Amino acid sequence: STNFYVKExxxxxxxxxxxxxxxDGVFDNTNSFRAxxxxxxxxxxxxxxxxxxxxxxxxIDLIDxxxxxxxxxxxLSFITDPNAYPPAFTRWEGVExxxxxxLLRAAxxxxxxxxxxxxxxxxxxxxxxxxxxxxxxxxxxxxxPYELALAKMNPGYENQxxxxxxxxxQFLRPCLVEFINCQHVTLEGVSIKNSPFWTVHPxxxxxxxxxxxxIENPYSAPNTDGIDVDSCTNVKIxxxxxxxxxxxxxxxxxxxxxxxxVNKPTVNVTIKDCTVRFAHGGIVxxxxxxxxxxxxxxxxxxxxxxxRGIRIKSRRGRGGDLFDxxxxxxxxxxxxxxxxxxxxxxxxxTDTQSPLxxxxxxxxxxxxxxxxxxxxxxxxGKNCKASAGFIVGLPEMPIDNLEIRDCHFTTDESSDRxxxxxxxxxxxxxxxxKSFRVRNAPGAKFENVRIDGPKETFIYE
Length: 461
Known about the structure:
By secondary structure, the protein is mainly beta. The protein has helices spanning about 1-10, 30-40, 125-135, 145-155, 255-260, and strands at about 15, 45-50, 55, 60, 65-70, 75-80, 85-90, 95-100, 105, 110-115, 120, 175-190, 190-195, 200-210, 215, 225-230, 235-240, 240-245, 250, 265-270, 275, 280-285, 295-300, 310-315, 320-330, 335-340, 370-375, 380-385, 390, 400-410, 435-440, 445-450, 460.
């Protein structure tokens, strides 16, 4: 019994079996995980060990001063019933609101660690199919009880910004792993796969280490970003492998007026020795940029096979100051476009004629994004299918102090992919050459940058 166990063993380490858990892939371990962490909380923290087996469970809440260790062969397998994940406060596509409780979550915690050689499986296929069914049926408003419950808690959701995930239906799918309002967090060693929505979402975290992770979702899976660092400070992302159906390693800070209100930038981020495959973008800043993203250093990463290697994206209305960004020694073979800096990002907008995408100067406001002081050094990209590069600022807020040096890009002139596929945008004039396109970035400096393939290497607009 639990009482016998408490008397006989130190509470610094417990196992899920001690609380009635069964790793047979059938038994629901939700209550066992809850009881185990309640026991650790009584003792001020400790370690919960999950041994080899398939541990079916609903949502898991982590606590202060606790380690969750997944042994080799252990798999957390999450139930796919949306009703199992009640509303929880979060930020969903850049706006604070209530969404479905993340599968594995820590809120208002310090000294949290998830480690080991096991697997965290979100069983996302059921969620992706449900999202597709809702879209195919033409659903445009909340219908199911879990959607109606969220709609009631999110007044004004109809007018909130989104990135295409489906806010209008309030089918706000859960993240797989989420840390919110935490300090001193480590996630290391584990494999994470098949997320319903964003995969790893640290939100308002200070002192975060993500290391030696393997994150995999099918490329066709919607909105399944790999890592979304959201308004966090002092972050290290080291030796992670990410292959997903949206952006790979992404830095965010809220969207538009709500993100400006919260005003928590993402600051001091180091990304080293990582590999990203298949994603829409390899290392990404945005498109939720409202509070700014600053002091970012990325080095020695392989972003080959992504749609875009380096991707910085925002638009009018999203706000934010992005600066002091250095991206060094990145390999970006077989992309559509190795470098895309896009201030005309379209996702979440259906009105192609919106003033957001005007080529004329618009008034500068707190919702005007700014990109400046960016260095891209020693990067290479072969077989760029759409273009050698895409740098597009706003006429009223040009990209300033951009330096690209010691880089070599080769376009695949046999590819039928259009230069207009370099990134997702509205409003820009057509181009037909796979050149390095530069618009509204008058101070851009290119030093020892070699471009092979297109008949015209640079297009300045």
